[in-house]
Structures are given as structure tokens and as C-alpha cells.
Amino acid sequence: MLELTNLSVQVGDFKVAHISLSVHNRSIHAILGPSGSGKTILIETIAGFHQPCGGQILLEGADITAHVPELRDMAYVPQDLALFPHLTVKENIYFGLTARGRLSERLKKEADAVAEALYIRNYYDRNIANLSGGEKQRVALARALATGNKILLFDEPFSGLHPGLKKEFWFLLKELQARHNLTIILITHDLEEAFFLGDHISILIDGAVHQSAVKERARIPRDKTVAAFYGVRNIFSGTFLEHELLIPGLNLTLPLSDGWGVEEEDGKKVDVGIRAEDLIIYDPERIHGVLNLSPEVISMPTLHGRITACFEKGHSATVIFSPANSDILLEVEIPHHKVQKLFAGKKPDMALAVPPERVFILK
To answer: Which residues are paired to 116 by β-bridges?
Structure first.
């Protein structure tokens, strides 16, 4: 296990402060955050390129905080990949072994096997400048794996790839991680990438970790800052009253949910939110037959109103819902294949079911 304990590092005017994280062996830990949040400084500190001004870095319980990079048994792939343009593909892949005086026949064969698995074995004599972006990514991956290190550090490695190629590398990285029992720390600003690859996700914003959790729990923001980064716009003011949560702006009352994790004192005001994809919109006149809604959905707290806009995005659509007797607009995310079914007949009156267990309290 790799552990960061109350780690702080200052680089110029920027400080990453009081970071405590645990990265479990044979897992992918995604550190997710916007540009300028300190992600690169943090991973460079883990790699040994910056000395922290406080805290510790522990590897299997041993303090490696003061170790130089080559003694940490980690492979680091920076955002620009740091391939050597004057070396061939083969020389780049062998570089880590050559620099450490470890280029034995056995390790050369292992490096060649990695290159074969990444479909670049036939490119050994090519110059780096003559490779495509995807081919360069494969060379960088092969060089990291060829060292034999079981901890890999990736700083936004796929940010320059188009969506199709990026997803191809996501699958490839998951396959390599499982095959070689790797522990990976992945820096990214891409939510989809973090949730596709990460077993555990930490949110780093303005030099501080706002939340850190396994993937299933990480999708729920804990505060307004994370909610804003996630793009959650369905946030409202609520009040606890007699074992219910009242949301006056929506004229909506929700039963209490065990998953909220807050003290429900009468009169206590809270900020509540719900993700757009967790809301369920339907035509109340077509609940049987065409939409086949379950009794559970029909029994949920429900708003009635109309759709004011629909923005199709290829694989899904964002619908803007305006509840009756309210000035608040809600975002609803629906799969693309449901758009035509939802708008069949162009009914002006729609219903919006709100699953109480999907509502979250912002702290």
C-alpha cells in the first residue's frame, strides 16, 4: 500500500496542503480535479521530484519521503510522455533498464513481450517523430512497464487523444493493470475517464482533497465545490420538519432517507441536490403500455410541469423541466433512444419522479 499522510508541498506560490490518501495494491486510484488544482504537483511529489514541506509518503509502511526518484520503484509517465526524440522506439523502451544497468537478456525479453502486447514490436527501428499520437502513447506505456515496477504514475496520459482512441486506451490500461498486478495512480480532469478506470477516486480542488471514496460512493458530491466541478446544477434549499425534508422552491416533500448521513433536526436548513440522470421524467397519461413504468416509480414524490428545452448530445439528451408553480428549472438526463418516445404526441404536461434515496445532502 502507498500512503500519503498529511502531505504538504509548496511549489512557487502554489501549495498542496494536508493530503492524506491510501492507494491499495493492485488498484487504480484516480486523482480527479480541474486544471490548476495541484494534481501534477502532487504526483510529481509522489514520484520524488519535489520535496514536501510536511507529512510523509509511506510505501508498505516504509518512509520514502526523502528518497530520490530512482529509489522509489515507481514508473512515471508525464503528460507530454517525455519520450526521447533522438532515440528509436526500441531505445526508448529499453531506456529505463539501460539507465539503471539492468539490461539483462531476461529483462530485454520481458520488455519485448510488453511491446508485442502493445502492438509496437514491429516499430522498434522507427524514430519517435514518425509515430502517431496513439503509437507514442503505446511506447510510453511499454517503457513504464518494461522497468518491472509495479507502481505506475500517470499524469493525464490520454488527454491529447480523440474520444475513440482514448476509450481504446482505457480498455488497454485496465487489461494491463489486471495482467501485471499493477498499482496505478492516474491524474485526470476527465470525469468519465476517472469513473471508467478508477477503483477509488479522490477529488483535488485548489490544492486540497475535498473527498476520497470508492467509485460507487464517489459519484455523490459531498460539498458545493465538488458538485460544481461535477456539473450538478440541481441544487436546492431544504428544511427538515417532522421526519420529512421540505424543498419549498419546488413545493416538494421527501421522506427521510437512511443514506443522507446527517442529523435531521426540525427546522435545520440544508442544501440538497440530485444528479440529472437520477431523475425520471415521463408522460403521466402514458404510464401503462408505452413507457411501462414500475409501481415504485409511480409512487415516488413527483413534480408536474412541462419541458422547456431539449439538448441532444449524441448518446444522451439534457431536458430542461419547469415544475408548475415554481421558478426553478431542473436538468434531466435521458438516453437518446428515449427522446422520441418521450416527445411522442408533444404533450405539454409531464411528470418528474424524484427518488428520495438519490437525493444527497451537501455539507
So the answer is: none
